[in-house]
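Quick one: C-alpha cells for this chain, please?
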Amino acid sequence: MRIETFRMERMQCVYEKEVAFDLSESGVTPMSVSELLDGEQPDGLLGTRLAYPRADGSRSLRERIASWYPGAAAENVTVVNGGAEANHAVLWSLLEPGDRAAILLPNYLQAWGLARHWARADAFHLKRDRRARRWALDVAGLKRAVTRNTRVVLVTNPNNPTGAVFSEEEMSEVVAAARRAGAWLVADEIYRGAEISGETSPTFWGRYERTIVTSGLSKAFGLPGLRTGWVVAPRRAIEEVWRRHDYLTLTPGMLSDSLAAVAMEPSRREAILARTRAILRRQLPELEGWALGHDGLFDWIPPRAGAIALVPYRLPIGPTALAERIRKEQSVLVVPGDMLGGGRALRLGFGYDVAKLREGLARVDRVLEALTAGSGTSRSRETPAAPRPRRATAPLRDSRRIATRIG
C-alpha cells in the first residue's frame, strides 16, 4: 500500500539545519542533561549497562507517568520512542481497511496521513472566534464528521498548530460524539503542561471508557532528544499497542528510560513545566507585537499553550509559496498552513532564542515588504492595529478546501 509523503516533516528534515533562522520548531529550548538532573545523579546512572531495558518501560517510569492521569495505573501505560511512535502504534492497532477516522484540523498531519493509509479520514475543524480571541471547536462540523461508521475520533489538545485549548464544554462535545458512535477517542496531549496561564489543562483520560491518550517529553518538557513517548489506555488496548511496538522499535532506550523517570518525578515534573511556561510568557509578546504591528495583514489569535501560533494572513500568495520565498530569500524556515490543514496561514515557533526570534521575524518582514509594495497595505511596528473584521465564515475556506483535496 502506498503512503503519502509527510510534507511538513520532510521539509523540516531537509532545511532546518540549513537555514540561519528556524522558526518552524514547535517546542522550547531543550534542556541539557545537567539541567534535568539539577545537580543530582540517580543512583548508578553512570554505571548503567547499555542493555535492552524492559520493552514497555521500567515500572518506576510507568508509575510516574500514570500519576499524571487521575485513576491510571502503571498497567495502563506503555512507553515508546516518542509521541510519533505512540500515535503510529495506536492508530495501527485501531484502524483497518473500511474504517473511518474523524480527525481535528488544523493539526500535525501524521494522524491524517496514517488514517488515509489504513482507512478513511474525515475532517472537523477549529474556527476563529474573534470576539473571544480564541480558536473554537466547530461542534456542528464535529457532529457531521462522526458517524455510526467512525472507528476513531482524534484530537490534539492543546492543539498544534493553533495553541488552542478546549473548554470543558468542547471536551464534553468530543466525548459525546465518540460515545454516540461507539468510537475510540484518541487524544494527543503532547502539549499538555505548556499552558501560558500556568494551569495544566485537563486530560481526556477518565472521561470515557474507550479513551486513549498519547504524549511524551518532546514539547511541554523540552526533552525531545530523549525520544520518550507513551500511551495511556485501558489494559486490553495497551496489549494491542504493545503487540505492534514489538514490530517497531521494540523498547525505549536504557538511558532515556532512566532520565525520563527523573523528569516525571512529580516535583521535578512541575519544575520542568514551570521552566517551559516561563519561556513562553517571556517570548510570546515578541511574536504578538510583531503580528499586531502589521496593520491588519495578519489575523492574530494568541495561543493558549505551546510555543507555536498559527497566523492567518491576507496576501495574494499561497502558504507554501510564501514559506518557500521566505526560506530562499531570507534563510528563515516557517511552516506553511497548508501542511497543517490550516489554509492561508503560517505556523511560527517562538520557544527558542528570543534574539533569533526577533531577527528571524525582521527577515520575514523583508519578504512582506516586497509583497505589499505598491498594494496600499501599510505596516507599522510602532503602532499596532487590530486585524480588520471579516465575515465569520471566511477563515475556514482554505482549510476546508485543503481537507477536501487531500481527503
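The chain is about 40% helix and 15% strand.
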